[in-house]
Amino acid sequence: MPIKHSPLDTARFDVASARADDVTLGELPEIRRFCEQEQIQFIIARCDTSELDTVQALEADGFRLMDTMVHHVYDIGRNGLPVLEPPHPIRAYQPADRDAVLAIAKAAFEGYMGHYHADPHIEPSVADEIYADWARRETETSQVFVADQAGEVVGFITARMNNPTEGQLVLSGVSKKARGGGIYREFLKHGLHWLGEQGAERVLFVTQITNTPVQRVWGRLGCVLQRSEYTLHKWFDR
């Protein structure tokens, strides 16, 4: 089934919410039926950028384009693991790091033009908090590493295994005062090593198409573009 309830968005916006991923044209009737039967008021839909007929049909049905995501992949089997060059400031996350990680996430993504920030129906402050909440959930469900400079946490990255052979580097942030020093690249290398130790043969990276600085870092590391997808929103009462 391409559509399901979204408890997180329901809690965030206090309206019945749903998500539909990898939408194709033939699935639109099913999505419409689900929304009507479940009295959905807000839905997030994603579809591959090659699905132009689907995008146009969604727009005709009241959906609005919010962002474009690009998916890159690092092939460990082909590229091997990048060389770690100690000393580096990366260490495993500890519970005492939680407040610093959440503060960095909130500051790093303030005003970031993701699909929540792009939606005029969502207050910017609410969209900012969504990233802090995302980081909070990542500290509870994923492997987290932090950058520690003289006892101060100045960045973080989260990693997880999607299946026995595929890993993903999910969310990261570096404090403003520590940017430009190569911490993000060290995060990527460290994360790739950890995922490789877990059995990953390939590692996924996802970001906004407009987030070119991180894509340049990915390219220099050996990542290649895999696919892209659109994110669309529809509010049924606005």
TrEMBL record:
Q: Which intervals hold domain N-acetyltransferase?
A: 88-238
Matches recorded under SUPFAM superfamilies: Acyl-CoA N-acyltransferases (Nat) (SSF55729)
User: A Pfam family in this protein?
Assistant: Acetyltransf_1
Ordered alphabetically, the record's keywords are: Acyltransferase, Transferase
Q: Which InterPro entries match?
A: Acyl_CoA_acyltransferase, Bact_Acetyltransf, GNAT_dom
Lineage top rank: taxon: Bacteria
Q: Which Gene3D superfamilies match?
A: 3.40.630.30
Q: Name one GO molecular function term.
A: acyltransferase activity, transferring groups other than amino-acyl groups
Q: What is this protein called?
A: GNAT family N-acetyltransferase
